[in-house]
Each structure stands twice: as C-alpha cells, then as structure tokens.
What does this fold into?
Amino acid sequence: MMAEFDPTILAFCCNWCSYAGADLAGVSRLQMPPNVHVIRVMCSASVKPEYLMKAVSQGVDGVLVLGCHIGDCHYMTGNHRTAKRVPLVKKIIRDVGIDERRVRLDWVSAAEGEKFQKVITEFVNEIKGLGPNPLRSVRF
Amino acid sequence: MPRVGVFICHCGHNIASVVDVEKVAAYAKTLPNVIVAEHNLYSCSEEGLGSIKKSIEKNKLDRVVVAACTPRTHEPLFRKICEQAGINKYLFEFVNIREHVSWIHAKEPKAATEKAKNLVAMGVAKAALLEPQQETESSVIPRAVVIGGGLAGLTAASSLIAQNIETELIEKNNELGGILTNVSVIGPEFEDSKKLLDNYAKRLMGSPKAHIHLNSKVTAVKGFIGNFEVTINENGTEKKIPAGAIIVATGARELVPKEYGFGSLPGVITQLELEKMLAKGQVPKSAVFIQCVGSRQPGREYCSRICCNVSLKNALRIIRANPKSSVSILHRDIMSYGTASERLYREASEKGVKFMRYGLDSPAKVSKRDGHLVVDVYDETLDEILGLETDLVVLATPMTSQEDATDVGKLLKVPLDKNGFFLEAHVKLRPVEFATDGIFICGSARWPSSAKEVICQGLAAAAKAAIPIRRGKVVIEAITAQSDPEKCAACGNCVAACPYEAIEITTINGKMAAKVNEALCKGCGACVASCPNDAMQQRGFTTNQLSAMIDALIKSTVEGT
It folds into this structure.
C-alpha cells in the first residue's frame, strides 16, 4: 500500500498580521497538519512572484501567501499589491499546466488564530486532494 | 566561509515534549556552514544566553541561529547576546519551533520533529547569507496623544504631564470621566468617584503641558514611532497634532440587554441605571440582580470580570441604607476575586443578601403579576422554582467594546480580538503595548477592568510611552531597502510602489538610478517585489536569502523523498 501523500507546503506570512495570527494559533494550542513551513516577511507586498513560481516549479506542492485584511495593512496599502499580484501568478502557473489552486492568497489578522488554523487545514487538505506537484518528478 | 552556530531550545517541556531536540541538533550539525549545534533547556534564561555567548566566542561563530519561540517577542534578546559576544546583531536568525511547531502539532511528535528540521535548515540557509547592518536613529517629537478621557486616559495623561511631557487628551464627549461619570461610588472600597475624577481633572487643567480636546474625534493617523501626525476633528474644526507616541484609552461600554423584559417592563434596569438611581439617593426596598446577562454564553463567551463585584457593591449599598431591604443575586458563579472583593461577598452574605445559582439552561423569567415584578428562578440547591417579588430587577450585562473601536483600530493599524477589544502585543511580555512601536493601550479598551486595574494600566502605558519621548530618539531597525545603482534601470516601479515616498530617481555616478531615503523607509519591501531587475533589496530579507530558504525547504523535503 502506498503511504499517504504528505505534501510540502510553503507559506509567506507578513510580520504584523498573519505571522502574529500564526503565533496566536500556537499560543492557543490550535492543532493543524504539520505540512506548512512559514517564511516571515515584513509585508505580503514584498513577496516576489518569482518566489512563488520558484517554489512551484521546483516541486513544492502548495504555496500560501497570507497578509493583513484589506484596510489593515501595517504599511497602508501593501496588501492591495499582493491582491493584484497573486492572481497573476495563479494565471501564469495555470497557463503552464499547473493547477492554480496550488497557490493561494488569504488574509489572517493578528487576532485570527482560529482562521489561521482553518486556512492551513483547508489548504493542506486541498493539496492532498490534488496530489503531488507534477513538477516534483521533472525538476530542472 | 560563514561559521554558523545553531541553538535549539527545549523551552522546558514546551518544545522538547513534542520535538526531539537532540535529533534536530544532530541534523543541524550536518547542514552546510554549521560549526556547532547545541540544545539548551531554556535558551532565553541567563544560563542559556550565557552558553550561547560562550559558544560564539569559543567556536568563533559569525552567524547565530536560535530555534525556539517567536521573533516577535524574543528576537531583541538574542540579538543583544550576539552583540555582547562581539558579532553584529543582524547576523542572527530566528526559527520558530514552538508557536509554529510543538504547540500546534502536539500529537504528532515525529512529523513535528521533521518540520522543525526543515525550518532549521531554512534558517541556516538564510543565516549564511546574512550581512552585518548599521542601524540609524530618528528623532522623536516630544509630545504624546492620549485618545480617550475616561479614567484610563486621565491617569495616563496625568502621569505624562507629571513627567513634563506635552500631552494632548482627546475626548469624544463634552466632558471628561468616561463611564465613571455615571458611577458615584467605586468598589470595593466605596470611594467617591467624583473626587477621584476631579483630582485628575484639576491636575490637567492646572498644567500648561496638558491640552484637552473635548467633542473631538481622531479622523486620521499618519507616521510611526517618534513621528506621528494625528488629525482630529474638534467641534467641527480639523486639527493636526504631531506626536511621538499615542496611547489608546477608549474604554468600553455597557451592553444594552434584550432579555428579561428590558425596555418593556418598568423596573427592569441595567447596572448603570441603578448606579444613577443610587447616586440620586433613590434606594429600592427590594432588588433582584441577575448576573451574566448576555455574557458567558455562545456568541459572547467572555466573562466581563467586573460585574460580580459591581453587583456586590450595589447590593451592599442598598442593604447598608436599609438593613430590612430584600436583595437577591442570581448568578452562575460569583467571581469576587481578590481580597477586598471577597470581603464584600462575605459581608453581603452576612447581611442577608440571598445568592442563588442558576444554570445557562434554566434562566430566570421576569414578569409583572398583580402590579409587582416577579422573578421566577429555578434554585439548584432547593430543586424548586422560586417566585421572587421585587421592586427592581437589575441586569448585570457585560462591558463590550466601543462602537467605534474598529474605526480606531483601522486608523492606527492595530488589531482587535474577536470580541472587539484591542489586542496587545503580548499578554505577559508587552501587556500595555501594541506590536506597532509607539502605540500603547490601557484600560477597558483592552479588557473590562476595575478602576484600580485601569489606573495601573494607565500608569504603565504612560511610563512606556514616556521612554522614546524622554530619550528623544528611536533606533530604526536595519531592515530598510537599498538599491544597487549598477542594476537599476531607473524605471520608477519602486517609486510608485513605495507608500512613504521614500524613493526617488536621481543621478548616481552619472547614471539615473533609484535612491532610498532611509529616514523615510519603513522596511515593508513593496519596492523589492516591484523591481524587475533585482536592483532593490530589503536588508535582512534579500532575494538571495529568501531564495536560499526556499531551496533549503526543497532540498530537505521534495528532494529528500
């Protein structure tokens, strides 16, 4: 029997909202699947599209970008850029034949530990449903 | 070649009971550039810090990775020990294996250990590429803004002017005092609230440093620690106030109940309405208090903390005025915490206040019968329904967040919790600060608090806000952006992306290129992602560093399988 697919997932969290939300989930001992690896950035607007495409093209099964809710950005309008940028990345990976659901953008505030848990759990389940990134085996 | 040291923290049982720290340390030793990997019981303890310092010196380390809790609370501490050991504090990288691993994967020790290994590999990869940085300083406007003129704001403002700090107090109503203007006596010591408020008001009125703005609302906030600009609307006139620090003291309000016939049955009143009656000397002959009305139930789960003590105080005021009066308190649990309040509880019991416990599934019913208010309540002890005739039914509803708390939160970019109260940076380590530097929180805006607690918090917030103002300068974290004029094509994308107008296209060495004004840059990195040439980089978050983290994750997971 094949072992259950255990996806590798990367998440970019902004320092002020979503990373704090992730910390709150921890402090609240909210349990979630252990597939997601967080990279802390100061603002979701600093996440280069290249990072997302690099991760997906090299076999990471799913990539999350989490920022502050619109209107709550610590840097005023940074997340507006993120909101425009991530759909573009999704379109690009779709165009090359990768399921666009492998990249997801969501908003988690510093107070939303429960939402962080929900987003992580849902995303991991979704990626499990999609199966391994097809580029895992054709890495270049 | 960089010489990286990795220090894995047990955090007592917090990490080590889930993550196999020895395995993680052994794995870390196999990673490129790692000279030494150790594990400590508590890395942040004096002993832990001492052993990290010793290891840096002994092994001639020039990069340090600590895998422990969250950088949001402990990064400054570990950066400091790096500095003390003689290496630049920006050659430090934090890996979070507590909040992001052991606490959220408590039942999966194997997977948690694997994830911790991956995260350490990512941290080590970034650390190897870190560069020493120089911090800059910026000046601080010697003025504080206090939003809210209730007890919390008054206490904070009084403390600030006592420290000779110019203070602007902004109150939305036409008088100071907040919710206490409706409370004549403060428990548990039965102090005269008017005396207390007058005392603060006198201090403020008498000081040339204090500026009180009544009928005023904050409409915009710009800037950052040391250099805020708070725009207020005072009686229809707009004013801009430059300030170095901001204290949020916007308080809370009493929930208006829907239950128990409130609004339709005369004699069913809220705790604040009773306060007003008692202040006028109108003492009822009988009263039934119902506790936890609208709180500690699905939808509003929190305990408002102060209502039990308020009911005990007011029950005693009624019974002290007229020992023959009949007073009952229907409660779900009496929370008379602390020595003074527990004394009230005892006195109330001795003087004949009847305490009856009800369950959430069997609430009391209030009705009018033969011209009397009657409260039917199932008494758990007697196992029967009692009909209590009474003049007054007092509903002890919780304090809830202010109607405009969300607006204030949005203006200041500070978070609220799920109940609408403001959320501090850390419940124990930074209880009166927001995560955003230079903005502080006190009083019931944070959580329903007693007068004594509000005063403590007001004083604490003032003390914290005074630090940057008294110092006159703040250190700016060296995470600002820098542009490489060689790579820059002067396209101006970064100029458009910058929310702070910190970037300009100028001539550098005879060539048009972007230049970052470090004093204006806030280190968000929006310009970095907008640069098509990789010319713009954020210090501490460079493209190389973050790419190395992604590579490390791929190497330890995708390639490892």
